Amino acid sequence: MSQETTQVGDNVASAYEELKEIGAAPLWRFYGNLFRKEPLSQAVPYHWSYERFRRSIEFFTGVMSLEEAERRVLMMVNPGLQDPPATLTTLFAGLQTIMPGETARPHRHTSNAFRFIIDGTGATTTVNGEVVEMRPGDLLLTPGWHWHDHVHAGDGPMYWLDGLDYPLVNLLEGSFAENLDAPRQEQTVPTGLSSRMFTHGRLNPAFLTPAGQSSPIGNYSWEQTQATFDAIGDDLEGSRSDGIILDYVNPWTGGPVMPTIGCRIARLRDGFVGQARRTSSNMIFHVVEGSGTTQVGDHSFTWQRGDTIAVPLWTWYRHMVAAGSHATLFSYTDEPVRRSLGFFREETREG
Ligand code: 1HN
């Protein structure tokens, strides 16, 4: 190499160094990462066992008060997203328990949240002054900036799945949060009123004005979910990937229940073998009834009641239900965000 070429090389190297000093970077060295051909999540496919989580959370129930914990929640942490811990890049799942006589004190945050009840009865959640009952299979909403506390006046432990969008809110650096300086909220709305007023979403109370972008319904009850599946019956094939899949809707808009989280519930018949599907959205599945196997990317997860499965965006998934009984899968997704921003995509594959 001539002395001249070496000199040019040194000049170029120092010019790159100087770019850092002036707060600049050469786009040509970053193109590939900034404009990927397809999405690739940092999260990996994963499966959390309810049985295993229950054993651990029962231990902590014995050694730690709810005053200490604020919320007794075991987070479902994706091995690809440990710091800060999250279930998928935009979504969180956790298992929460509350014991008879306990109160999880009121707070509110910008994150949207829901609870899907797994086991137990007798606890209530108060959301902006409305007392909402909790029964297995119910979906309860606590949209962003709504006060919420949990009280258990019944017998036996309660367990539920918590779903939140805090990973997305924190990516957007949008977190506000505060505690109410009281052990619980005062009830200002009759118990379960919102669910009664919007019973089936086809006759909305026109004397009310929609507030915010979320559904006004506090509890989408399992009783109504089951009645809907029964009304549809067993004769339809439904979606080839997801069977008889239903959207929980915001009755004001017909759209998703919250701006950042869409919730669905699907009944898959005995022996169902789904068509592989992938979407540009993150998805979390929770087993309400039945058992089976779901292939997610290169993984194969065998699941039973109460288990939770994370499907990172743009990863193929395929459900298979064990012979002997149908399965019911609750799921939630950040699809509303991607649709509203114009980059939702989906594909299915034969075989
Ligand atoms: C939260 O506020 C609750 O209010 C549950 O029950 C789980 C996980 C992360 C952040 C806040 C609740 C949560 C949470």
UniProtKB/TrEMBL annotation:
Cite the Cupin type-2 domain residue spans from the record.
95-162
Q: Which GO terms describe its molecular function?
A: dioxygenase activity
Q: Which residues form the signal peptide?
A: none
Q: Which InterPro entries match?
A: Cupin_2, GDO-like, RmlC-like_jellyroll, RmlC_Cupin_sf
Q: Which UniProt keywords apply?
A: Dioxygenase, Oxidoreductase
Identify the SUPFAM superfamilies for this entry: RmlC-like cupins (SSF51182)
Source taxonomy lineage?
A: Bacteria, Pseudomonadati, Pseudomonadota, Alphaproteobacteria, Sphingomonadales
Q: Name one Pfam family in it.
A: Cupin_2
- Name-wise, this protein is Cupin domain-containing protein
Which CDD domains does the record cross-reference, listed alphabetically? Answer: cupin_GDO-like_C (cd06992), cupin_GDO-like_N (cd02216)
